[in-house]
Amino acid sequence: QVQLVESGGGLVQAGGSLRLSCEASGRTFSAYSMGWFRQAPGKEREFVAAINWSGLNVDYADSVKGRFTMSRDNAKNTVYLQMNSLKPEDTAVYYCAARPNPQTTVVLGLYDYWGQGTQVTVSS
Fold first, then answer.
1. What is the mean pLDDT of the chain?
2. How far, in Å, CA of 67 to CA of 84, rounded?
3. Which of 90, 94, 95, 111 shows its CA 20 to 30 Å from the CA of 8?
4. How many whole angstroms from its chain centre is CA 72?
């Protein structure tokens, strides 16, 4: 079992930055690939970014490419999402997810564990 706890959400003006963190429980964190997803009101949950076990391979949704950076620190069992140049359309609840496979995937249904989510609100 893996438990995920996100933090770092909040209210920011357009053009601003936030850094989300997701801390995982368990001793085999480095065996998991991790993902960030988001869900805006009235919309389905969508892929944002995913990182492989080593942190050397990261995939991004086209909508965030060049603005968001995902990274991980296996010594701290933590993944991060640095969000720059935020736009109002980035407003959503952001979820961290984990899967017991070292390689990345953008497919929501392949993640086994989910955090409770953290709200990000970008004002115009």
1. 96
2. 5
3. 111
4. 10
Q: What is the mean pLDDT of residues 26-55?
A: 94
Instruction: Round to whole Å and give the CA distance between 50 and 96.
Output: 10
Q: Summarize pLDDT for 93-121 with one digit per residue, the tens.
A: 999 999 999 999 999 999 999 999 999 99
CA distances from 9 to 12, 28, 63, 121 (A): 9, 26, 19, 8
For residue 30, the model assigns a pLDDT of 87
Instruction: State the amino acid at position 15 in one-letter form.
Output: G
The region, left, alpha or beta by phi > 0 then psi within -120 to 50, assigned to residue 113 is beta
Non-local (6+) Cβ contacts of 48 within 8 A are: 35, 36, 37, 38, 60, 61, 64, 68, 81, 94
Q: How far apart are CA 30 and CA 73, in angstroms?
A: 9
By DSSP bridging, strand 10-13 and strand 18-24 are unpaired
Residue 27 has a pLDDT of 74
